[in-house]
Amino acid sequence: MKKFKVGRLSLGWQILIGLLLGIICGVIFYENKTAITAMQNIGTMFISLIQMIVLPIVISCLTVGIANMGDIKKLGRVGLKTLIYFEIMTTIAIILGLIVGNLFHPGDYIDIHQLHSESIGQYVQTAHKVQHSGIWSTIMGIIPTNVFGSLSDGSMLPIIFFCVFFGLGTAAIGERGKIIIDFLQAVAEVMFKVTDWVMHVAPIGVFALIGSTVAQMGLKALAPLGYFIVLAYATMAIFIIIIMGLAARTFGLNNWHILRTIKEEMILAFSTASSEAVLPKIIAKMQHFGVSEGIVSFVVPTGYTFNLDGSAIYQSLAALFLAQAYGIHLSLSQQVTLVIVLMITSKGIAGVPGASFVVLLATISTIGVPVQGLTFIAGIDRLVDMGRTVVNVAGNSLAAVIISKSEKEFDFQKNRKYLQQLGK
Protein backbone atom coordinates (compact mmCIF):
# COMPACT_ATOMS: atom_id res chain seq x y z
CA MET A 1 0.00 0.00 0.00
CA LYS A 2 1.40 3.39 -0.94
CA LYS A 3 2.02 5.96 1.75
CA PHE A 4 0.21 9.27 1.59
CA LYS A 5 2.62 11.91 0.37
CA VAL A 6 2.40 15.55 -0.54
CA GLY A 7 5.71 16.71 -1.95
CA ARG A 8 8.43 14.95 0.01
CA LEU A 9 6.68 14.66 3.34
CA SER A 10 4.64 11.60 4.36
CA LEU A 11 1.30 12.07 6.07
CA GLY A 12 2.80 11.20 9.46
CA TRP A 13 5.33 14.05 9.24
CA GLN A 14 2.68 16.46 7.99
CA ILE A 15 0.46 15.64 10.99
CA LEU A 16 3.37 16.07 13.41
CA ILE A 17 4.17 19.46 11.89
CA GLY A 18 0.49 20.42 12.13
CA LEU A 19 0.50 19.30 15.77
CA LEU A 20 3.55 21.41 16.66
CA LEU A 21 2.27 24.47 14.78
CA GLY A 22 -1.10 24.06 16.51
CA ILE A 23 0.56 24.09 19.94
CA ILE A 24 2.55 27.22 19.02
CA CYS A 25 -0.55 29.02 17.72
CA GLY A 26 -2.47 27.92 20.79
CA VAL A 27 0.11 29.59 23.01
CA ILE A 28 0.17 32.72 20.84
CA PHE A 29 -3.64 33.03 20.77
CA TYR A 30 -4.25 32.04 24.39
CA GLU A 31 -7.79 33.12 25.40
CA ASN A 32 -8.28 34.86 22.06
CA LYS A 33 -11.94 34.05 21.44
CA THR A 34 -11.87 34.89 17.73
CA ALA A 35 -8.90 32.61 17.06
CA ILE A 36 -10.32 29.84 19.26
CA THR A 37 -13.67 29.96 17.43
CA ALA A 38 -11.96 29.85 14.01
CA MET A 39 -9.77 26.87 14.97
CA GLN A 40 -12.68 25.05 16.59
CA ASN A 41 -14.77 25.46 13.45
CA ILE A 42 -11.98 24.21 11.18
CA GLY A 43 -11.37 21.24 13.48
CA THR A 44 -15.08 20.46 13.61
CA MET A 45 -15.28 20.48 9.80
CA PHE A 46 -12.44 17.95 9.62
CA ILE A 47 -14.08 15.64 12.16
CA SER A 48 -17.36 15.99 10.24
CA LEU A 49 -15.59 14.90 7.05
CA ILE A 50 -14.38 11.78 8.85
CA GLN A 51 -17.80 11.06 10.34
CA MET A 52 -19.29 11.43 6.85
CA ILE A 53 -17.34 8.42 5.56
CA VAL A 54 -17.25 6.17 8.64
CA LEU A 55 -20.74 4.66 8.50
CA PRO A 56 -20.73 3.88 4.74
CA ILE A 57 -17.42 2.06 5.17
CA VAL A 58 -18.58 0.12 8.24
CA ILE A 59 -21.87 -0.88 6.59
CA SER A 60 -20.36 -1.94 3.26
CA CYS A 61 -17.29 -3.73 4.66
CA LEU A 62 -19.14 -5.47 7.49
CA THR A 63 -22.04 -6.64 5.32
CA VAL A 64 -19.71 -7.96 2.62
CA GLY A 65 -17.45 -9.59 5.21
CA ILE A 66 -20.35 -11.35 6.95
CA ALA A 67 -21.89 -12.40 3.62
CA ASN A 68 -18.57 -13.92 2.52
CA MET A 69 -18.24 -15.63 5.89
CA GLY A 70 -21.68 -17.08 5.32
CA ASP A 71 -21.69 -19.54 8.24
CA ILE A 72 -23.75 -18.44 11.26
CA LYS A 73 -21.91 -20.95 13.47
CA LYS A 74 -18.59 -19.47 12.45
CA LEU A 75 -19.89 -15.97 13.09
CA GLY A 76 -21.07 -17.02 16.54
CA ARG A 77 -17.67 -18.51 17.29
CA VAL A 78 -15.84 -15.40 16.09
CA GLY A 79 -18.22 -13.15 18.06
CA LEU A 80 -17.75 -15.15 21.27
CA LYS A 81 -13.95 -15.17 20.91
CA THR A 82 -13.98 -11.44 20.24
CA LEU A 83 -16.09 -10.54 23.26
CA ILE A 84 -14.06 -12.81 25.59
CA TYR A 85 -10.81 -11.28 24.34
CA PHE A 86 -12.20 -7.75 24.74
CA GLU A 87 -13.37 -8.44 28.30
CA ILE A 88 -10.02 -9.92 29.33
CA MET A 89 -7.99 -7.03 27.92
CA THR A 90 -10.34 -4.37 29.33
CA THR A 91 -10.21 -5.96 32.79
CA ILE A 92 -6.41 -6.08 32.67
CA ALA A 93 -6.38 -2.39 31.68
CA ILE A 94 -8.62 -1.46 34.62
CA ILE A 95 -6.50 -3.45 37.07
CA LEU A 96 -3.28 -1.96 35.64
CA GLY A 97 -4.62 1.54 36.30
CA LEU A 98 -5.41 0.62 39.91
CA ILE A 99 -1.98 -0.99 40.44
CA VAL A 100 -0.17 2.11 39.18
CA GLY A 101 -2.41 4.37 41.27
CA ASN A 102 -1.71 2.32 44.42
CA LEU A 103 2.03 2.28 43.79
CA PHE A 104 2.57 5.96 42.97
CA HIS A 105 -0.31 7.70 44.84
CA PRO A 106 -0.76 10.64 42.40
CA GLY A 107 -3.60 12.10 44.47
CA ASP A 108 -1.39 12.56 47.54
CA TYR A 109 0.48 15.41 45.83
CA ILE A 110 -2.63 17.47 45.07
CA ASP A 111 -4.28 20.14 47.18
CA ILE A 112 -7.74 19.65 45.73
CA HIS A 113 -9.06 22.87 47.24
CA GLN A 114 -6.59 25.02 45.30
CA LEU A 115 -7.13 23.53 41.85
CA HIS A 116 -9.01 25.54 39.24
CA SER A 117 -12.36 23.88 38.56
CA GLU A 118 -14.08 23.39 35.22
CA SER A 119 -17.74 22.93 34.44
CA ILE A 120 -18.96 19.36 34.04
CA GLY A 121 -22.61 20.20 33.59
CA GLN A 122 -22.59 18.89 30.01
CA TYR A 123 -21.82 15.39 31.31
CA VAL A 124 -24.05 15.21 34.37
CA GLN A 125 -27.33 14.60 32.56
CA THR A 126 -25.84 11.73 30.54
CA ALA A 127 -24.33 10.18 33.64
CA HIS A 128 -27.66 10.44 35.47
CA LYS A 129 -29.35 8.53 32.66
CA VAL A 130 -26.62 5.85 32.69
CA GLN A 131 -27.01 5.27 36.42
CA HIS A 132 -30.72 4.63 36.06
CA SER A 133 -30.88 2.86 32.71
CA GLY A 134 -29.65 -0.56 33.84
CA ILE A 135 -28.08 -3.38 31.87
CA TRP A 136 -31.37 -4.42 30.23
CA SER A 137 -31.73 -1.03 28.57
CA THR A 138 -28.21 -1.37 27.23
CA ILE A 139 -28.88 -4.85 25.82
CA MET A 140 -32.23 -3.85 24.34
CA GLY A 141 -30.63 -0.80 22.75
CA ILE A 142 -28.46 -3.07 20.59
CA ILE A 143 -31.53 -4.10 18.55
CA PRO A 144 -32.62 -1.24 16.26
CA THR A 145 -36.33 -0.55 15.92
CA ASN A 146 -35.47 1.69 12.97
CA VAL A 147 -32.13 1.12 11.30
CA PHE A 148 -32.37 4.46 9.50
CA GLY A 149 -32.82 6.15 12.87
CA SER A 150 -29.67 4.42 14.10
CA LEU A 151 -27.82 5.60 11.00
CA SER A 152 -29.00 9.14 11.68
CA ASP A 153 -27.86 8.96 15.32
CA GLY A 154 -24.56 7.26 14.44
CA SER A 155 -25.27 4.47 16.95
CA MET A 156 -22.65 1.85 16.12
CA LEU A 157 -23.95 -1.25 17.90
CA PRO A 158 -27.46 -1.27 16.36
CA ILE A 159 -25.86 -0.73 12.94
CA ILE A 160 -23.47 -3.65 13.49
CA PHE A 161 -26.40 -5.81 14.64
CA PHE A 162 -28.38 -5.01 11.47
CA CYS A 163 -25.39 -5.49 9.14
CA VAL A 164 -24.66 -8.93 10.64
CA PHE A 165 -28.19 -10.14 9.91
CA PHE A 166 -28.30 -8.42 6.51
CA GLY A 167 -25.00 -10.06 5.56
CA LEU A 168 -26.20 -13.48 6.70
CA GLY A 169 -29.44 -13.00 4.77
CA THR A 170 -27.50 -12.00 1.67
CA ALA A 171 -25.38 -15.15 1.92
CA ALA A 172 -28.48 -17.31 2.51
CA ILE A 173 -30.11 -16.41 -0.82
CA GLY A 174 -27.07 -17.60 -2.74
CA GLU A 175 -26.41 -16.39 -6.27
CA ARG A 176 -29.14 -13.74 -6.14
CA GLY A 177 -27.29 -12.04 -3.30
CA LYS A 178 -24.13 -11.64 -5.37
CA ILE A 179 -25.37 -8.38 -6.87
CA ILE A 180 -25.70 -6.91 -3.36
CA ILE A 181 -22.19 -8.06 -2.44
CA ASP A 182 -20.72 -6.61 -5.63
CA PHE A 183 -22.55 -3.31 -5.08
CA LEU A 184 -21.42 -2.95 -1.46
CA GLN A 185 -17.87 -3.97 -2.41
CA ALA A 186 -17.86 -1.13 -4.94
CA VAL A 187 -19.25 1.24 -2.28
CA ALA A 188 -16.39 0.26 0.05
CA GLU A 189 -13.78 0.91 -2.64
CA VAL A 190 -15.31 4.31 -3.43
CA MET A 191 -15.35 5.29 0.25
CA PHE A 192 -11.72 4.23 0.72
CA LYS A 193 -10.82 6.48 -2.21
CA VAL A 194 -12.76 9.33 -0.57
CA THR A 195 -10.86 8.57 2.65
CA ASP A 196 -7.58 9.07 0.78
CA TRP A 197 -8.75 12.52 -0.30
CA VAL A 198 -9.96 13.49 3.16
CA MET A 199 -6.68 12.44 4.77
CA HIS A 200 -4.83 15.05 2.75
CA VAL A 201 -6.42 17.75 4.92
CA ALA A 202 -5.70 15.87 8.17
CA PRO A 203 -2.68 18.09 9.08
CA ILE A 204 -4.92 21.18 8.87
CA GLY A 205 -7.58 19.52 11.03
CA VAL A 206 -4.96 18.46 13.58
CA PHE A 207 -3.49 21.96 13.65
CA ALA A 208 -6.91 23.47 14.37
CA LEU A 209 -8.00 20.92 16.99
CA ILE A 210 -4.82 21.01 19.08
CA GLY A 211 -4.51 24.79 18.62
CA SER A 212 -7.99 25.47 19.98
CA THR A 213 -7.38 23.14 22.93
CA VAL A 214 -4.12 24.83 23.96
CA ALA A 215 -5.59 28.31 23.38
CA GLN A 216 -8.47 27.55 25.75
CA MET A 217 -6.51 25.74 28.46
CA GLY A 218 -3.11 27.36 28.37
CA LEU A 219 0.02 25.42 29.25
CA LYS A 220 0.08 26.81 32.81
CA ALA A 221 -3.21 25.07 33.60
CA LEU A 222 -1.49 21.70 33.20
CA ALA A 223 1.16 22.25 35.88
CA PRO A 224 -0.84 21.32 39.03
CA LEU A 225 -1.95 18.06 37.44
CA GLY A 226 1.28 17.35 35.56
CA TYR A 227 2.18 14.30 37.68
CA PHE A 228 -1.18 12.65 37.01
CA ILE A 229 -0.88 13.33 33.26
CA VAL A 230 2.65 11.86 33.10
CA LEU A 231 1.58 8.84 35.14
CA ALA A 232 -1.45 8.24 32.90
CA TYR A 233 0.70 8.32 29.77
CA ALA A 234 3.33 6.07 31.34
CA THR A 235 0.64 3.54 32.28
CA MET A 236 -0.75 3.59 28.74
CA ALA A 237 2.77 3.05 27.35
CA ILE A 238 3.20 0.05 29.67
CA PHE A 239 -0.06 -1.41 28.39
CA ILE A 240 0.89 -0.99 24.72
CA ILE A 241 4.47 -2.23 25.08
CA ILE A 242 4.18 -4.97 27.71
CA ILE A 243 0.55 -6.14 27.96
CA MET A 244 -0.23 -5.95 24.25
CA GLY A 245 3.24 -7.27 23.46
CA LEU A 246 2.64 -10.35 25.63
CA ALA A 247 -0.81 -10.87 24.10
CA ALA A 248 0.68 -10.72 20.62
CA ARG A 249 3.55 -13.07 21.56
CA THR A 250 1.04 -15.57 22.98
CA PHE A 251 -0.44 -15.90 19.49
CA GLY A 252 2.93 -15.91 17.73
CA LEU A 253 2.67 -12.30 16.57
CA ASN A 254 4.96 -9.29 16.72
CA ASN A 255 3.18 -6.27 18.20
CA TRP A 256 5.85 -3.90 16.87
CA HIS A 257 4.91 -4.87 13.31
CA ILE A 258 1.30 -3.88 14.00
CA LEU A 259 2.29 -0.59 15.66
CA ARG A 260 4.63 0.18 12.78
CA THR A 261 1.79 -0.45 10.31
CA ILE A 262 -0.63 1.95 12.04
CA LYS A 263 1.86 4.60 13.18
CA GLU A 264 0.29 7.33 11.03
CA GLU A 265 -3.17 6.42 12.34
CA MET A 266 -1.91 6.56 15.94
CA ILE A 267 -0.50 10.04 15.35
CA LEU A 268 -3.80 11.16 13.86
CA ALA A 269 -5.79 9.55 16.70
CA PHE A 270 -3.57 11.32 19.23
CA SER A 271 -3.92 14.68 17.52
CA THR A 272 -7.70 14.56 17.08
CA ALA A 273 -8.58 12.49 20.19
CA SER A 274 -11.04 10.71 17.88
CA SER A 275 -11.09 6.98 17.19
CA GLU A 276 -13.56 7.56 14.36
CA ALA A 277 -10.96 9.66 12.54
CA VAL A 278 -8.87 6.56 11.86
CA LEU A 279 -11.48 3.79 11.63
CA PRO A 280 -11.58 3.68 7.80
CA LYS A 281 -7.78 3.51 7.50
CA ILE A 282 -7.47 0.93 10.29
CA ILE A 283 -9.90 -1.38 8.47
CA ALA A 284 -8.00 -0.92 5.20
CA LYS A 285 -4.55 -1.35 6.70
CA MET A 286 -5.46 -4.44 8.71
CA GLN A 287 -6.72 -6.05 5.52
CA HIS A 288 -3.41 -5.24 3.82
CA PHE A 289 -1.64 -6.57 6.92
CA GLY A 290 -3.20 -10.00 6.33
CA VAL A 291 -6.44 -9.99 8.34
CA SER A 292 -9.47 -11.40 6.50
CA GLU A 293 -12.09 -8.86 5.44
CA GLY A 294 -14.91 -10.49 7.39
CA ILE A 295 -13.03 -10.52 10.68
CA VAL A 296 -11.55 -7.02 10.53
CA SER A 297 -14.92 -5.57 9.49
CA PHE A 298 -16.55 -7.18 12.53
CA VAL A 299 -13.85 -6.89 15.19
CA VAL A 300 -12.71 -3.27 14.74
CA PRO A 301 -16.14 -1.54 14.80
CA THR A 302 -17.27 -3.78 17.68
CA GLY A 303 -14.09 -2.91 19.56
CA TYR A 304 -15.06 0.76 19.44
CA THR A 305 -17.71 -0.12 22.02
CA PHE A 306 -16.33 -3.13 23.89
CA ASN A 307 -12.54 -2.75 23.78
CA LEU A 308 -11.60 0.72 25.01
CA ASP A 309 -8.40 -0.21 26.83
CA GLY A 310 -7.04 3.33 27.05
CA SER A 311 -10.31 4.58 28.49
CA ALA A 312 -10.33 1.73 31.03
CA ILE A 313 -6.83 2.68 32.24
CA TYR A 314 -7.82 6.32 32.60
CA GLN A 315 -11.08 5.57 34.43
CA SER A 316 -9.52 3.36 37.12
CA LEU A 317 -6.45 5.59 37.58
CA ALA A 318 -8.55 8.77 37.72
CA ALA A 319 -11.00 7.25 40.23
CA LEU A 320 -8.14 6.28 42.54
CA PHE A 321 -6.45 9.66 42.00
CA LEU A 322 -9.58 11.52 43.13
CA ALA A 323 -10.10 9.23 46.12
CA GLN A 324 -6.51 9.90 47.24
CA ALA A 325 -6.90 13.64 46.66
CA TYR A 326 -9.93 13.64 48.99
CA GLY A 327 -8.11 11.49 51.54
CA ILE A 328 -10.42 8.51 50.99
CA HIS A 329 -8.72 5.17 51.61
CA LEU A 330 -10.12 2.40 49.42
CA SER A 331 -9.99 -1.13 50.80
CA LEU A 332 -9.28 -4.12 48.57
CA SER A 333 -12.98 -5.02 48.46
CA GLN A 334 -13.88 -1.45 47.43
CA GLN A 335 -11.33 -1.56 44.63
CA VAL A 336 -12.67 -4.93 43.44
CA THR A 337 -16.14 -3.38 43.41
CA LEU A 338 -14.76 -0.48 41.41
CA VAL A 339 -13.32 -2.90 38.82
CA ILE A 340 -16.68 -4.65 38.44
CA VAL A 341 -18.62 -1.39 38.19
CA LEU A 342 -16.25 0.01 35.57
CA MET A 343 -16.44 -3.22 33.55
CA ILE A 344 -20.23 -2.93 33.37
CA THR A 345 -20.71 0.83 33.12
CA SER A 346 -18.12 1.36 30.39
CA LYS A 347 -19.97 -1.06 28.11
CA GLY A 348 -23.23 0.84 28.51
CA ILE A 349 -22.19 4.26 27.26
CA ALA A 350 -19.17 3.82 25.01
CA GLY A 351 -19.61 6.04 21.98
CA VAL A 352 -21.35 8.98 23.65
CA PRO A 353 -19.46 12.30 23.71
CA GLY A 354 -16.96 12.38 26.58
CA ALA A 355 -17.66 8.70 27.29
CA SER A 356 -14.72 8.13 29.65
CA PHE A 357 -15.65 11.18 31.69
CA VAL A 358 -19.27 10.11 31.86
CA VAL A 359 -18.21 6.65 33.08
CA LEU A 360 -16.39 8.31 35.97
CA LEU A 361 -19.41 10.44 36.80
CA ALA A 362 -21.58 7.33 36.85
CA THR A 363 -19.26 5.28 39.07
CA ILE A 364 -17.19 7.37 41.51
CA SER A 365 -20.14 7.65 43.89
CA THR A 366 -19.66 3.94 44.59
CA ILE A 367 -16.34 4.72 46.30
CA GLY A 368 -17.51 7.82 48.16
CA VAL A 369 -15.89 10.47 45.96
CA PRO A 370 -18.03 13.61 45.50
CA VAL A 371 -19.14 14.19 41.90
CA GLN A 372 -17.78 17.73 42.21
CA GLY A 373 -14.30 16.22 42.40
CA LEU A 374 -14.35 15.60 38.67
CA THR A 375 -14.35 19.34 38.04
CA PHE A 376 -10.67 19.29 38.98
CA ILE A 377 -9.65 17.01 36.12
CA ALA A 378 -12.22 18.23 33.58
CA GLY A 379 -9.71 20.77 32.30
CA ILE A 380 -7.15 18.12 31.36
CA ASP A 381 -9.61 15.51 30.11
CA ARG A 382 -9.01 16.44 26.47
CA LEU A 383 -5.23 16.13 26.89
CA VAL A 384 -5.44 12.67 28.47
CA ASP A 385 -8.13 11.71 25.94
CA MET A 386 -5.53 12.06 23.20
CA GLY A 387 -3.40 9.36 24.81
CA ARG A 388 -6.21 6.95 25.64
CA THR A 389 -7.51 7.20 22.06
CA VAL A 390 -4.14 5.93 20.80
CA VAL A 391 -4.37 2.92 23.13
CA ASN A 392 -7.95 2.22 22.01
CA VAL A 393 -6.90 2.26 18.34
CA ALA A 394 -3.82 0.09 18.89
CA GLY A 395 -5.77 -2.38 21.02
CA ASN A 396 -8.48 -2.87 18.40
CA SER A 397 -5.91 -3.33 15.65
CA LEU A 398 -4.16 -6.06 17.64
CA ALA A 399 -7.52 -7.69 18.43
CA ALA A 400 -8.34 -8.00 14.73
CA VAL A 401 -5.02 -9.73 14.03
CA ILE A 402 -5.31 -12.08 17.01
CA ILE A 403 -8.89 -13.14 16.21
CA SER A 404 -7.95 -13.65 12.56
CA LYS A 405 -4.98 -15.84 13.49
CA SER A 406 -7.05 -17.85 15.97
CA GLU A 407 -9.51 -18.58 13.14
CA LYS A 408 -6.62 -19.57 10.83
CA GLU A 409 -7.61 -16.77 8.45
CA PHE A 410 -4.43 -14.73 8.72
CA ASP A 411 -2.60 -14.45 5.39
CA PHE A 412 1.09 -14.72 6.30
CA GLN A 413 2.25 -14.35 2.70
CA LYS A 414 0.28 -11.13 2.29
CA ASN A 415 1.62 -9.97 5.65
CA ARG A 416 5.26 -10.53 4.64
CA LYS A 417 4.82 -8.66 1.37
CA TYR A 418 3.16 -5.74 3.12
CA LEU A 419 5.87 -5.50 5.78
CA GLN A 420 8.51 -5.55 3.05
CA GLN A 421 6.74 -2.63 1.34
CA LEU A 422 6.67 -0.70 4.63
CA GLY A 423 10.40 -1.26 5.04
CA LYS A 424 11.21 0.41 1.75
UniProtKB/TrEMBL annotation:
Keywords: Cell membrane, Membrane, Symport, Transmembrane, Transmembrane helix, Transport
Gene3D superfamilies: Sodium:dicarboxylate symporter
Membrane-spanning segments: 12-30, 42-70, 82-104, 155-173, 194-219, 225-248, 317-344, 356-378
Principal cellular location given in the protein's record: membrane
One GO molecular-function entry: symporter activity
Gene Ontology process terms (BP): dicarboxylic acid transport
Statement: the UniProt record of this protein carries the keyword Membrane: yes
Membrane disposition: Multi-pass membrane protein
Protein location: Cell membrane
Pfam families given in the database record: SDF
GO CC annotations, alphabetized: plasma membrane
Keyword Transmembrane helix belongs to the record: yes
InterPro entries hit by this protein: Na-dicarboxylate_symporter (IPR001991), Na-dicarboxylate_symporter_CS (IPR018107), Na:dicarbo_symporter_sf (IPR036458)
Protein name from the UniProt record: Proton sodium-glutamate symport protein
Species name: Liquorilactobacillus vini DSM 20605
